[in-house]
Structures are given as C-alpha cells and as structure tokens.
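Sample A.
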Amino acid sequence: MSMEDPFFVVKGEVQKALSKAQGLFERWEELLQEEAPVSRDELDWSTNELRNCLRAIDWDLEDLHETISIVEANPGKFRLGEPELLERQEFVERTRKSVQLMKEQLSSPSAVAQAEKKNKQALLGATAKDRYAGLEPHLVSANSRYIQEQQEQQQLIMQDQDEQLELVTGSIRVLKDMSSRIGDELDEQAVPSYAKQKCIALLLLLATVNCMMFLYKALGNSTVYVKN
C-alpha cells in the first residue's frame, strides 16, 4: 500500500486535531470547575477555539468517510482488503464519537449555566476592581489631609503651651526677685531672723499656690505634647 494514500494523510491531520481538541477540552473543564473567579477572556477563547477545532475535525471525517465509500464501491481498483476497510471505518466512527461527546458537553445545560456564572463573576470582579480603584486615590488624599490637619493642630497646641510656660517661668522669676527684695527690706528694718524667714516662707507659699493655679488654668484643658 502506498504511503501517499490520501486516507493516511488526512488521518494524520485528524489525529493531531483531535489531540489539540482534547487538550482544549480539559482546560475548558478546569476553568468551569475552578472555584475562584477565572478570566472571561480565557474562558471565551477556550470555548470558541474548542468549537472551531471540533468543527474542523468533523469536516475531515466527512472527507475520510467519502474516501472509504469510494473504495468500497471499487474494491478491485484500489486493491484494499476487507480488514483494511473495516479498520478505516472504525477509526472514523471512533473519532466521530469522541468529537460528539465533547460537543454535547459544550452545549449541555449545566455547562452553559456554569459558563454564564463564571462570566458574571468575572464581570462583577472587574466592575468592583474599577470602582475601588477609583475610590483609592480619593481615600488616600482624604487620609493625607487628615494627617496634615492633625499635625498642624498639634503644632499650634505645642506653640501655645510654650508661650504659657514662658509666662509661668517669667512669673517665677518675678516672685523670686520680689522675695529677695522683701528679705533685704526686712534686714534693713531689723526684723528678727525667725520672723523674716516665716514671712518669706509664707510669701513663697502664696507664690507657689498662685503658680500652680496658673498652670492648672493654662494647661489643665489641653493635651500636653512632649517634643522629641
């Protein structure tokens, strides 16, 4: 038998196409069974590519069937025995059943419903992603403004506290000078030492109380921030 027999040429092409179709079919099933959302583009591509491949195989099988019919009609001309013809017929029928099985799976209600579900998941996922992507810059900007406002407010509070502490420090210096002058005057008036000490102590006590009250009023209603 000649290796240039058209049947074997077409048979080789059919076998290659069938192998490709089976690979596409397996990937198509994996995409439908995947629990996580899948790419809609990949699912559509796998489905369409599988359909086109199966359609091409059907056409080749029709060509093979015609060649077998021609040989059967002229057995003496082609010199093919019955076993050879039977083997060719079995190949065509076996391949046709495999193709038909995949076509039925592609068009089954469960597969169609699952494909629609996957497409909706992909669409909703893309919509949500776009929506949150649009919100993200706005949220980042709002957060940045809030942080900046808090930092500015903290800075103002710290400046106010510095000014009030300066006032307290100045008041303490004034009271210290006043105590010193009173002590000098008491010395000039020959006031007994114990009485002078008592007077100065009383004055310092009053000054301390006044300072504490001032501090309480100045800082009692504010959060104290410590500089780094």
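Sample B.
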Amino acid sequence: MFSSLHLSPDVETNAIVPVPIQILTLTLTLVLQVADHAHVMRSN
C-alpha cells in the first residue's frame, strides 16, 4: 500500500484536483440558472 502510494503521487493529485473544479462548475451553472429565472420573472 505505502510503496504504491509513494510511487504514484501524481495519480493522487490528478484524482483530487478535478473535484473542486466540478463543484465550481456545478455552482456556477446553478447560479446562472437562478439568475436567468429571476431575470425572466422580473421582465414578466
């Protein structure tokens, strides 16, 4: 276990890095959708 972890630190970073990016994209899309919905409600 430990030897494999020491041999592949890049694999760990590659697995850890995309998670915050996915969360950011999800929150951004949600905020944009809510903003569009609010804008439509105001115009009506």
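B remarks: Residues 17-44 form one domain. The helical segments are 2-7, 9-16, 18-43.
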